[in-house]
Amino acid sequence: MHHAFMHPTRRAHRLYAALIGSLLWLGLVAPALAEGTLDKVRTSGTLTLGYRADTQPFSFADATGKPDGYSVALCRRVFDAVKTELKLPALKAEWVAVTPANRFEALQRGQIDLLCGAASPTLGRRAIVDFSILIFDSGIGAMVRTDAAKRLHDALAGRTNPTMPVWRGAPGALTQKVVFAAVAGSTVEHSLIEALAARRIEATVAPVPDYASGTQMVLDGRAAAFFGDRPVLLDTAKRSSSAGELLVVDRVFRREPLALAVRRGDDAFRLVVDRSLSELFRSKDFAPLYARFFGAPGPSALAFFELVALPD
Description:
With 312 residues, the chain is α/β, with parallel strands linked by helices. It is 41% helix and 24% strand.
């Protein structure tokens, strides 16, 4: 005689499996989240690394289309550490280009395992992803045309009133409504909007998809200034075919340390990432790697990495 009775544990497992299946079908969770990154990599034999192609010197595609940059070099070290941790000498690295708009979603959905770019850890972002230890002490800068109005140069450079807060120009320095550009969805865009509103400066913030678009807006005169990560702005201006028409003001508006991003709640993988970065920052290999992208590190830079590297 058949009985409808099922052991409680087995019934719970089936109910849990059905729930996960429903969530997957609805797209509310990603398949990769059902297992840790290291388990996923062990099964697939591949570590998938996301990178942006437009944030040189942190992350970019070189002349042959291959990923390169400071953050990419750090992720290659992480890849080696994962290969050793899992004892998988044949482990493969798959590089996937991401955009400012989809980079965190790609991480959440398991389309990439590690985000190798220039991401600023914020409380809002920590609600959806986790971050490694800091990898760079960056800051927000501004790019303008060299022939821009002197009032704009002075206001952005802070020469009119050095005691004013860093986002603000002098009273009356920006009396006409102007357009500032920033990469859409970036912390720079949000900070700029808030700062202008607080200062009651009549300016419009124009979101752009990438650094190339923001630079072009400045060159075309459609934006008075383009705000972004200062090292990226400096590199973009230097490489531009119109380099002589561009100037990055000599000012950091706000410090903005950067980190690599990992999936939220994956402590085992994040530990491998943090350990490999800490060991690199303490090693003799780090200074030459840093110098390749930013020039020889000064005492303050070396002190920063000594501070963020975690002890064993």
